[in-house]
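Final report, closing paragraph on structural work. Over the funding period we assembled a curated collection of sequence-structure pairs, and we close with a single example.
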Amino acid sequence: MLSGIHEAISSNSLDSYSLSLLNPYMPNLSAAWLFQKAMSGQPSEKVSPDFINELLSINFQCMKRLKDPVLRPFLQDVIQFEPLAKTLGLILLTHPGILPSIFSQVGFLMVLEWMAHFASLGSYTFLSTFVSPILRSWVKNLPKKEKYKWNRYLEAWEYGSGLDYKL
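Its predicted structure, as stored:
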């Protein structure tokens, strides 16, 4: 962030749009809110009182089977597309009966909204993994204002995908 602020000042990129690039949309953080919502203890007749414990147990059983590359980022509050997709896939395969409780707990519309964030997480992962390496050398040669803008996009893709975390 400090390098971004320095670059904004030195390139005179101080308009509201340019400054907004310092605080971009982060799909990994947006994807995390569904976990918080599912874990909130809101009493409901439709959901078992043991739902939260059951969901946590299933989640950690699946992550344990998928080993450290999946478990460690999650334990450090890093949401990444591949570990999340693997965990969700294994949950769907091994415990599909948990889905109605999840939908009852958080609501169908919230799950749909979350799926959009999950898709964005996948897009940011793709951009950071495959597009950023190609663009980095091009960005170095841009004029200061354009360089500032593209550096913020590259950072957003990396941080928004959780790929700044290294195992």
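The mean pLDDT is 93. Residues 2-160 form one domain. We thank the funder for supporting this effort.
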